[in-house]
Amino acid sequence: MPSLKAIRTRISSVKSTQKITRAMKMVAGARLNRAQVRITELRPYAVKTQSVLASINTEGTLAPFEMIFTVCAVSLSRRPSGAAPAR
Question: I need a surface site. Which of 18, 29, 70, 74 has the fewest CB within 10 A?
C-alpha cells in the first residue's frame, strides 16, 4: 500500500493535469469559434464565386469539337506579394 505522501503527490499531479487539460479545451474551443466565424464570413464569397464560375460554364452552346479552357486566378488578400504562408 502506498504511503500517505505518495497518495498526496499523486492527487496533486492529477489536479495539475486536469488544470492543463481544462486550459487546452478552452484554447481549442476559442479556435473552433474563430474558425466557425471565418467560415460564416466567407460564405458570400463562396456563393458569388460559384455563380461566376457557373456563368463562365457554357456547356452545350458550342460544337462538340470545340474546347474551352477556363483559368481562374485566386490571390491571397493578406500577402499580395511573396510566398503564401503554409498553415
Answer: 74
